[in-house]
Protein: Outer membrane protein assembly factor BamE
Amino acid sequence: MALKLLTRRVAPIVTATALALVLAACSSSGGIVTKRTQGYEISESALKQVRPGQSQELVTLVLGSPQSTNTFGDESAFYYVQTKIDETAFGLKMIKSRTVLAVYFDKNKKVSDKAVYTLEDGKVIAIESRRTASFGEDRSFVDQILQSF
Structure:
């Protein structure tokens, strides 16, 4: 009797799990893990075309619009980010590699340098969780209502 009750409870879970695995295997990608690239696809040929002395307009024609820009003083930079990820049929994403192409410009908007950075070049930054208190922000909604009377 106990075995029959246990089988009745476990059978739907096992069936649902098996069905989920079968459906995941039958996805259009042909497998459970899909490899894809997010962001800009940095090709070697495009990278070779960017040389010191070229204008910002020519860099934009060769590489396209940058995903991010930065200006510091008279100089500026364009950033192109490529992230290669593996994504499972269940939505889990795993970053395999990240490459950032940085193109630096001088005050005349001509290429002064370029650099390629990877995940190994990055640094982990600890985020500060403390906040500066400001008027009215630390009071709860109920406190604000009661103080209005």
